[in-house]
Structure to design on (469 residues):
């Protein structure tokens, strides 16, 4: 019997443990891999059903789904006219299936063979209403791994709201009892609106971490829905719809503020990342600023803005002022997409010094210019520059990357102010001073240091240094 806060009655033998719902529109040839991964599940076929909603495919996928269903008794196909967005097909699946749990898969992704069995067993054992599987990207899809590294039985809402994709296991009674469905109109973030309602109604949200259970594909044809262009008003309106649900829940004020700040940072302030905002036309920039100003007026008082880390807090203040030129300057100073920088490793070097190695490359160039490493304090009021030199003793990992060595002396370490310092590499390229945030490679080790000074990888995969008071 489940040991968590929620337990369903024992289902009858003819009710599957989990129903997998898949909206399908022109997903060939990727659909083959998804269906193969479902047929390879090590959960008994009688314990799960697959419900494919063909949303008017014209690429031959309809016939393939029918043929696949003819060979698998637990697979059902429904053909319908195209609705243009996955919310309506997913709702058809919710209404037409009977499993104790629901899992929403996309037609171009892949499940690990043990995914369904482990997700169902975990939800049964812990009484979880929502289980977030460990996920990874394939074919160039970037999925930040930090959320899925370890299992978390009781996930706090601010953390849960960092993943709004629908590829999760949901207890059917959670959706039925609270009348939770996907928006059916063509709106951005329809899965985020759905998840906001599910998260807030759930008694327990969990992450099943560790070995990857679900693989998100980056399609070669560029037809992932998330790859399309954004309408500033429509997209920001969808973020506002999610925030409306959060505000209406009357949560603890600190929890509400943390959730709102996180949604604002990830869904709105990403527009102002280096190299992105400056690619927009002046008209487009104004459209984003106006949409975000209205959003700020509704959801982001300065008390919430102050919860943002840098550089997001500075970005937000400039958006509030509608200062496009200063946002462009901030982006240019924050980082340049042409310069790539990563932390390769480090080690203590006598007398309390710290030796650091960086990989760096410039897009389109083989030879690297001279570099400097900058440590920037998060409050924006402190910067330390450390010269770095090309190190030719160690072979480079990439043919167009150079390995650079820098030395943080014990005197420099002792001079650092308390707080968090972020690492940047900087150089002059085409007579322009550009910078790039230093990423922390997953393979890079972090040297043991004095307990007052701590190197670490951030949740976004960058390198930072914390100095205790």
């Amino acid at each position: 019997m489940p040991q968590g806060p929620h337990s369903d009655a024992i289902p009858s033998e003819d009710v599957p443990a989990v129903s997998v719902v898949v909206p399908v529109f022109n997903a060939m040839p990727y659909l083959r891999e998804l269906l193969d991964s479902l047929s390879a599940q090590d959960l008994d076929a009688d314990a799960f059903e697959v419900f494919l909603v063909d949303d008017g495919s014209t690429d031959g996928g309809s016939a393939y789904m029918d043929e696949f269903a003819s060979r698998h008794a637990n697979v059902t196909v429904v053909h319908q006219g195209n609705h243009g967005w996955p919310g309506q097909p997913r709702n058809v699946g919710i209404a037409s299936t009977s499993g104790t749990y629901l899992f929403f898969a996309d037609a171009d992704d892949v499940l690990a063979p043990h995914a369904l069995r482990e997700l169902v067993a975990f939800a049964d054992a812990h009484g979880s209403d929502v289980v977030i599987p460990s996920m990874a990207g394939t074919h160039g899809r970037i999925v930040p791994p930090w959320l899925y590294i370890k299992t978390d039985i009781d996930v706090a809402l601010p953390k849960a709201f960092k993943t709004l994709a629908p590829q999760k296991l949901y207890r059917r009674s959670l959706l039925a009892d609270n009348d939770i469905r996907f928006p059916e109109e063509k709106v951005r973030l329809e899965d985020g609106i759905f998840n906001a309602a599910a998260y807030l109604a759930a008694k327990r949200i969990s992450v099943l971490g560790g070995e990857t259970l679900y693989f998100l594909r980056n399609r070669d044809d560029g037809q992932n829905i998330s790859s399309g262009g954004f309408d500033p008003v429509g997209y920001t309106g969808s973020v506002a719809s999610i925030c409306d649900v959060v505000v209406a829940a009357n949560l603890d004020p600190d929890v509400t503020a943390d959730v709102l700040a996180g949604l604002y940072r990830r869904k709105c302030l990403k527009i102002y990342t280096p190299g992105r905002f400056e690619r927009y036309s002046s008209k487009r920039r104004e459209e984003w600023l106006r949409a975000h100003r209205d959003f700020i007026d509704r959801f982001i008082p300065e008390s919430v803005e102050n919860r943002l880390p840098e550089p997001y807090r500075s970005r937000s203040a400039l958006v509030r002022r509608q200062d496009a030129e200063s946002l462009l300057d901030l982006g240019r100073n924050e980082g340049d997409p042409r310069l790539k920088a990563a932390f390769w490793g480090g080690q203590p070097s006598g007398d309390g010094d710290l030796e650091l190695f960086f990989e760096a490359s410039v897009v389109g160039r083989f030879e690297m210019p001279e570099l400097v490493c900058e440590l920037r304090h998060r409050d924006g009021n402190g910067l330390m520059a450390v010269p770095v030199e090309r190190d030719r003793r160690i072979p480079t990992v990439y043919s167009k990357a150079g390995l650079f060595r820098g030395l943080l002396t014990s005197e420099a370490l002792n001079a650092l102010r308390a707080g968090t310092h972020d690492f940047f590499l900087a150089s002059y390229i085409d007579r322009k001073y550009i910078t790039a945030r230093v990423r922390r490679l997953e393979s890079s080790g972090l040297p043991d240091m004095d307990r007052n000074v701590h190197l670490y990888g951030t949740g976004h995969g960058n390198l930072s240094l914390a100095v205790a008071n």
Q: What stands out?
A: The chain is about 30% helix and 25% strand. The first strand starts at residue 18 and ends at 24. The chain has three domains: 18-221, 232-334, 339-467.
